[in-house]
Amino acid sequence: MAIIAAGMLVLAGRVAYLQIIQGDEFRSTIEAKLRDVEFLDSLRGQILDRHGRILAIDQPCFDYCMDYRFLTADAKWVRRQQKKIARDRKISLAEATEVYRQLERNTWRLARQAGGATLEELEEAVYRIRRRVGGIHDLLGFTVKEELQSHPVVRGLDEQAAVAIKAQLSQTIGASIRPSQRRWYPYGELACHLVGLTGQVNAAEQDRLNEPADAPWLYRRLRYYLPGDVIGKRGVEKLCEQRLRPRRGYRQVSKDTGEVLAIQPAEVGHDVHLTLDIELQRELRNIFTSLAGGYNGSAVVLSVPRGEILAAVSVPGFDLNRYRRDAEELFRDNVDFRLRNRALTQTYPPGSTAKPMSALAALSEGLIDSNYTAHCEGYLFPNVRDRFRCWIAGRGAHGDLGVVDALKHSCNIFFYRIGERLERHRPGLLRQWFERFGFLDTPGTGLPGEARGVVHEDIRIGEARMLAIGQGPASVTPMHVANAMATIARGGAFVAPLLVMEGGPQRIRRDLGLSPDHIELIHEGMYRVVNSPGGTAYKYFHSRGAEPLGVEVCGKSGTAQVSPQQADLDGDGVVEIVREGNMVWFSGFAPRRDPKIAFAIVVEYVPSGAGGGSSVCGPIARNLVGLCKRLGYLE
Hints:
Blueprint: H1 2-21, H2 23-33, E1 35-40, E2 47-48, E3 54-67, H3 68-71, H4 75-89, H5 93-115, H6 119-140, E4 150-157, H7 159-166, E5 175-184, H8 192-195, E6 198-200, H9 203-209, H10 217-223, E7 230-232, H11 235-239, H12 241-244, E8 249-254, E9 260-264, E10 272-273, H13 278-291, E11 297-303, E12 309-315, H14 323-332, H15 355-364, E13 374-376, E14 399-401, H16 403-409, H17 412-425, H18 429-436, E15 454-455, H19 461-468, E16 474-475, H20 478-489, E17 493-495, E18 509-511, H21 516-531, H22 538-541, E19 554-561, E20 565-567, E21 576-579, E22 582-590, E23 597-606, H23 613-630
């Protein structure tokens, strides 16, 4: 009896401990398991242009889904399906097993047929699903409903494809079609590099963004990036991820009574408006492709008063809606680099478009004035004619030139002298002035991958001469050049270009302290480039029979020599030349009085015999100005 009494005392103590001391904890655990938490997804924010036209939106579509137990080959689930087949078809279990195998093959075949995906792509999709559901299981610590549900293996099917697949579902096992949404880009290739792309979050992104690590499981489930979640990968989609991203909600229901215990609605992502005019972008791209002679390049248009990016064309591009299908081909492209944003991430020697900045540097430092002249004989050193030539070398000489005519004729000799004077006055002085114009920074839009301009340090006199004409130790993007033109048009007020109206970086502003008299000299020189007979671009803006623009354009052409483009075309390790030629430019602003737009155009690898900046880019620039006038940007 004593032994029994002792045992009973131990049991009573244990019961008291469990019911009284730990009762609340166990009760909470049991109640949690009796509640069904349903997580609610929402829509990603839209991306719109300056006039409210939609550039990116979540659009209704259909997904081809597979049961999680099918994907994991769950033995119990497979056995139940085989028994059901045997019962429904009145066949033996062995025969039902063979039927199941055939249905399984049909399920995977239809998946490949549905999305045009390869076996490797399907395996990757299944891996992500298993990783996502496994992550949720680990968060909660018990079997979750996601382990009993179907999950999308092929996403974004249109209605026609969904109907065709539904007709074949009876010949599959564990497959279904479910309504969903996909990211849709109504303008396809237009502004593809700016708008950007979304994709499934990866482990590195989760590690970087999922903070704090010790948050409660519900907070993690609602706020964390979970495997399979969508995240911005390129362009504005990435830059404005935190604004565009929707927030999950949840509904908690009692399994016992069906009562809704708690609810938190999902939050739709916020919209993002761009300064871009997609119609200007479309027509400018058409102008570029029709007049650039089949060469690649870029064209940028900025609003001078506000510093907004109105258009930023990069040729060639790619269709955002076909990206996943074309991704392998796009990544293999080592000649045209269709994924590269030439307006913001590709740098080029600026050529003679740098000459207005060089002249302003010398004027501002007091090293030259409006009366200064330099004599051009075609060569800086007549006895050494293979170096420091003027562009007209072999066809005469410019003679004595001041600042205005040096810009009009784009005389290299004049600007060689400018480079000499600046470098001798103070080493690195011209580089410092290029820095003030933004050439040593990124353009400042905040877009991922923006290239920083490069101007070499510790240059000698010879390199300073080349730097003054935009050749040699300098490399910038078309956006840098367009913004330099906007800065000159504003009289020396530097403002970083603006693309995103909400969620972009803090804009850099500075006053370069330029004299109005010096600015007027540069404006006059650039005006004569376009509007004075003998100007380098005159005949391309005032060709016989052409309808007058009715706008006074100030411009500057440029031609920069570069090394040939090389690539390993067939993957055999042998690099060969694929393109040779010059980078040709035209940049400027309009109208001359009260400028409204600034622009820069670059065309890549134009053979020497095919023309320079004025002949190749001048017609594009003329049509660009006419287009901006027609769309009301010069009013």
